[in-house]
Design goal:
The chain is built from seven helices and no strands. With 156 residues, it is mainly alpha-helical. It has one domain. Helix 3 runs antiparallel to helix 4 and helix 3 runs parallel beside helix 5.
């Protein structure tokens, strides 16, 4: 059994499009991918959210371990994943699940780009992603605000 919003997004997955009137295509693509594997069931519809949350936890752990220490990786992963689970975005598939995953990935790319002198390639990837569309208006504001806040923190 799925909730109303999930059923609405599952209808998107039946009719993939580059965009919809009120959302971007990412949630539809995630649902479509996992319903191909598990069928159009509640499990198949929701598995994408659980998969993205699990992958985000592993990526955060690896990032924290590589940049700081293993303990930092564990703490970073647990704090972010538990926060997402608290808001049920780790279980229910909504546009927030892929939005959280890709926003965290973008933040890590900005961090690595700044600290590893790989700025041009990283910023070109993010800039290209920004032009191609998003799941929600928050993505656009975050992609602008994150580097500005980050650089303000660095230079103050």
């Amino acid at each position: 059994m799925v909730i109303d919003d999930e059923a609405y997004y599952a209808m998107y997955a039946r009719h993939l499009s580059p965009g919809y009137i009120d959302h971007g295509p990412t949630v539809a693509f995630v649902i479509w991918l996992f319903t191909l594997i598990f069928g159009e069931t509640g499990f198949g519809i929701r598995f994408g959210s659980v998969f993205l949350l699990t992958l985000m936890g592993w990526i955060l752990y690896q990032f924290g371990k590589n940049q700081f220490s293993e303990r930092a990786g564990i703490i970073l992963s647990l704090l972010v994943v538990s926060n997402v689970l608290f808001h049920t975005n780790g279980v229910i598939i909504t546009p927030d699940a892929p939005l959280a995953f890709f926003t965290i990935c973008a933040m890590m790319l900005y961090f690595k780009g700044y600290h590893e002198n790989a700025k041009p390639a990283i910023f070109c990837i993010i800039k290209g992603k920004k032009k191609s569309g998003s799941d929600a208006m928050q993505f656009f504001s975050l992609m602008t605000a994150i580097p500005l806040l980050y650089f303000l923190e660095i230079y103050t």
